Amino acid sequence: MRSITPLLIVTALAGCAPTPPQQTALVDTRAQEKLSRLLTGKVAGRPQSCLPSYRSNEMIVIDENTIAFRDGTDRVWINHPNGGCNLLGSSPYALVTHSVGSMGLCRGDIGHVTDTLNHSTVGSCSMGDFVPYTTPGRS
């Protein structure tokens, strides 16, 4: 009986050991590849507090912490929302933004994470600075 008890304890503890987050690593790798494709050949500029103008169909969700705004073929603006946008980048969620005034989307503006199937808001996030990445020699 004494020799069985330690074996049962070790077996029970082994069942509680955490498994490595394989799914998360895969998602992060895909996000890194997507961002890398967008920024290939581009260099970062000075962060701006507002995105001058954008079309919502040019917004590309990289992951919960990174949103890209394509501005033609030579410029991409990258935004890292303050604290991230939970659930963004997962299906069926999308980011809905509203610009106030003529400045376009600005740091501190709130984006709402919306479930596109039932049209309900499931979260929100605050925009951070917008960093332009531009192809050298073009403005």
Give the averaged pLDDT, no decimals: 80
The chain-level structural class is alpha+beta
Spatial ordering of strands, largest sheet: 1-10-5-4-3
Helix content: 10-25%
Task: Determine the oligomeric state from the structure.
Answer: single chain
Low-confidence blocks of residues: 5-26
* Backbone CA Rg: 21 Å
Q: How far apart are the termini?
A: 78 Å
Query: What share of the residues does DSSP label as strand, in percent?
Result: 25-35%
Number of helices: 2
Number of domains: 1
Summarize this structure briefly.
The chain is of the alpha+beta class and 139 residues long.
Could you give the topology of this structure?
Layout: H1 4-15, H2 22-39, E1 43-44, E2 50-51, E3 59-63, E4 66-71, E5 75-79, E6 93-97, E7 105-106, E8 110-115, E9 120-126, E10 130-134
Antiparallel strand pairs: 1-10, 2-7, 3-4, 4-5, 5-10, 6-8, 8-9
